[in-house]
């Protein structure tokens, strides 16, 4: 364990009591497995920072194991996040159903999806990956400094010698004051530039689009998301660093409600522009969803603390250009796969972009659900890395990869087996006909081949950026995968159409995942890459068997709803039985846990 200043900061951060969303800490149950936090200097035993009782949290142990009670907290946080993620996914399907019902797979829906490309990239850069990878470590460091200052203040109040520091502002508020105003100015300028340059953006993204003027109008309506998504991502990173996960998980619920409401209310008047306006309204609702909790954690006025002389006066050491550049390049390269897809699809017949979009949105639902595990545990990995506890970081990352892989591969098996039934149940109504269902289902099955790669890229990128040190390897890996996607796309699109584009996506993202898996163990966290690959290979084998079984059984039931309902039972059963036969440790452990729970319940 490091004895440098970084280690000291990580130890102070471990004393930060994790609030469980909007519930007051006094309402949290104290469990025997989760003793109170270690007291800081001058604090009475059982007290958290500032003298408040810290419940359901524990200090970092000296060994590589996780803190007692931390696992239960993460499990509850993951469960709450899962509920909101599923709700957002369901509303996302309702959103896509509304667009498909009113506009089908047509020139109008293609124009909207081209305009939606910018918000999708902004969401990845400003909410899901880029902002979180930068700001979670920065806020964690600020919280560490606040905990040190509160401990020093408590020590002086108990009659201990003064630390020799001078009064200073709250480090967290100092970080916000130094970064948020500048960020808002930059984002407002970006939104204004996008509105002015919308015609040029549309020509670059989709040179073969049949109705570019409609796409330009939609792009100008959605341009506001450059600002609103940036503020949303900033709030989300701050809340997650405070271990408040539910409001950030609920932003996409609010976002989809805005799109659905505007589409239903105004589609007969504005056409597809109503959906674009809904994107802007939904993005404003994302900010309002998090604002009350943020104001509670960052009140307008806070007392000034004692600032130790040995501390640096820098407010955001983790937000320098050397750290910012590789994160931005990685995220932009990752989202550029969508740009490549839509650029190539714009040269195909009308509706190709829509088929790709519907297939991708549905196929990636298992990937989104699997990555919520890594989202919740990212602060834990960042803390272990800052503390120099590489063994704990290794255990956490390997566990996350196994769990995320099992979730996404089970979803992959369902997609492989029942893609036509899924699309028919979700979208086949109104302007979306049988031909659209067949084309979208074919693409979705091809996309499924790359779901594990997408999941691994999202899971493996977080440890690279968790320490706050500049690292260019993820950007290199993602750039390599993007080049593979572009090359394969140009080679396959002319002959295979949208299926060729989906194949190129799967090959490119899998290349990136392989490079990240190989590089993580030698550069950041000493994971056992061969053991992880073997475990994922067994799960992939179970997914292939379950998917093939579902594919064969789906033809036996003509009704799509009944067939899909049967598949939701058949595919998981075959998946877990095959996993047992292949001796997958993750499947064995999960089934043993379920058996033990039922046994204890009796």
UniProtKB/TrEMBL annotation:
Q: Principal place where this protein is found? A: membrane
Q: Which GO terms describe its biological process?
A: lipid translocation; peptidoglycan biosynthetic process; regulation of cell shape
- Classification via InterPro entries: Lipid_II_flippase_MurJ/MviN (IPR051050), MurJ (IPR004268)
Q: Name one Pfam family in it.
A: MurJ
TM ranges: 73-94, 183-201, 221-239, 251-270, 276-295, 316-333, 363-381, 401-423, 443-460, 472-492, 498-520, 532-554, 560-582
Molecular function (GO) terms for this protein are:
lipid-linked peptidoglycan transporter activity
Membrane topology qualifier: Multi-pass membrane protein
Return the protein name: Virulence factor MviN
Q: Which UniProt keywords apply?
A: Cell membrane, Cell shape, Membrane, Peptidoglycan synthesis, Transmembrane, Transmembrane helix
Coiled-coil ranges per UniProt: none
Q: Where in the cell is it found?
A: Cell membrane
Q: Compositionally biased, Pro residues: which spans?
A: 36-47
